[in-house]
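Allow me, if you will, to draw on your knowledge of protein folds for a short while. I have a record of one protein: its chain in single-letter code and its fold written as discrete structure tokens. I remain grateful for any guidance, and I place the record below:
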Amino acid sequence: MGGVFVHADAFARFLKDRIGAENVIFMSGTDCYGSPIVEKYRSVVADGQFSGTIEQFVESNHLKQKATLERFQIDLSMFCASGLPPAKDIHARVSAEIFEGLYRAGALEKRSNLQFYDAERGTFLNGRQVTGRCPIAGCKSEEAYADECGLGHQYDPRDLIAPVSALSGSKPELRPVANWYYGLEGKQGVLEAYLQEREKRGEIRPFAAKESREFLKKPAVYIKKEDAERLGAVAGELGAFTAEDDGGNANSVKLVFNRLEERERACVVLFGQGIRYRTGKTLVPFRLTGNIEWGVPAPERDGAKGLTFWVWPESLWAPISFTKTYLRSVGRDENDFKKWWCASDARVYQFIGEDNIYFYGLAEIAFFKDLSGEAAGGVAPGSANEYAGLTDPVIVANKHILYFDKKAASSGKIKPPMADDLLKFYTPEQLRAHFLGLGLGVANVPFRPKAFNPAAGGGEGDPVLKESTTLTNVYNRAVRTLLYTLQKYNGGFAPRAPVSAGVLRATEDVVLKYERLMAAFEFHSVMSLLDDYARSINKTLSDNMKVLQEANDVPAILQVLADAAHMIKTAMVLFHPIVPEGADLVRRYLRIDGRVWSWEHIFRPIDFFYAEKEHKFKFLEPRVDFFKKHESQF
């Protein structure tokens, strides 16, 4: 919630205000398939916590997620589920169509790969039923599975260190199984061009570009220097490679190969000689299918039958099938998806966590390029492929939220609080403001809720409330001052004085800065800008009102209030994507209609929205708060 959804929702709401809600589709959904679901289902059934089918288990999770998103004011056009109606059948069809498009593009290869098999239980094991240690150099994941670790690193199952079967606790065997693979390892050139284009347009965060390029390096293995002396005896069997110092590690040597298959052959030799090694990041064949029963069926091709899609690739095109599902749900032709995914004036923004850069920032982009015949080695699929021309998504990747100072994950040792648990101590708008203010586009940031900190002292401030203080104190005070003062001096009627030219210019400057920051996804800077602006409204009121009230200079008082009303209206519109319910409450007290949210009118003086010449604001009762604190904070 804090790392992805709130940011995506604020941006989607901004776009709806900026270009019109009819021009924005905001989608997400539940990944229903995959081995983690199967393993969790097996576990809860075995423990007596659930007695229904796996479909019912998935549906119960989906409905809980949907309810939580609604509590946090996440305004999705539709929240789909890949394995549940109405998206299920459409998603299965889209999956098959994309498979066929990639197949015709010459981008797929059937390979016999090794899969873990539990001889004691007589069954193949899915990815999450095997645990061990990640073989990727420098990886600090606490959980590694058959061919992917908790941090998203992929590797050959043979490289998993100390594998253990979750079913029997024994060491599983590796047996060959035929599957379809996507040739991602040949796409360095097209992906580098994509990264350069995104950098040129300012549409990728620097850390995301850097992490993406980590996978565009040549295949390499890392060997401890103490074992490097033994390389001489087997150097002739390793093939062509260059030896380099491992820049950040004085204790290891890096062996660099030109091709992935050359590195794989070298790994077999090293393993046979008992020489310890770790593999480096590089592009590897991207597995499309598996033999897990709970999955989207894959088309039968070249004698490969009974396969299902691995959850990661089918989740990459799920946004397309979900878009089709949404369009059909509102009575439109699902083929209209091309207006959103293929048109030259369409943009696709995907908000993800840092761990998923490999999948969305590399594999997905390569898929789309091949479907259009653009990727290296691809053959143009032709007009029969309805997915030719998919626009390259803008990947908005966030760094990790640390729970206090540690990385937390549901699959790790340190468990973060669930989103619903946070609502026992904070309002949704307090949390939305805080998550947006964390600066996750720049660095990993600790989340330190006082309510969950047993070491926190009674008089100690709560870091989670830092950003929302702008709302509950500063902006609240400005709106209250405006309305109470007008009730005292002008019968609650809006001042008829025109907004000062200086206030109009200063407000225009804030609006343009806000727009640039939103377009660059710099949400923490947006929060800082709005804090400064809200304080400037209070300053406009406090610097003038006391003296003018003492002098009983009513015309001057009304001029100050006219200026403040325009600033309050503008701040309300800029706060709207961030804290929509509180912003709308301000709108209702100002008694102006929904046109105010449209950026067609962003620079208009507030009296443009008045329904009548003598416009009266709604009467403000004592102690009304537009942005409330949680009851536990009193």
In short: Residues 218-280 form a domain with the Alpha-Beta Plaits fold (CATH 3.30.70.120). The longest helix spans residues 523-551. Confidence is low (pLDDT under 50) at residues 376-384.
